[in-house]
Specification:
The protein is mainly alpha-helical. The protein has one helix at 14-41.
Length: 42
């Protein structure tokens, strides 16, 4: 992970919101794989 943000966390609210947006995007990307694994696992 790169510690450099697009928007630094020093900026109140907005700095954390961009981190949350990246996290939500990452979760949406892996969600189908996790669901397929759960289905496979039974």
């Amino acid at each position: 992970m790169n510690p450099n943000d697009i928007i630094p966390d020093d900026i109140p609210v907005v700095g954390v919101v961009d981190d949350m947006a990246v996290l939500m995007f990452a979760l949406k990307v892996v969600e189908p794989e996790v669901n397929a694994y759960r289905e496979w696992r039974g």
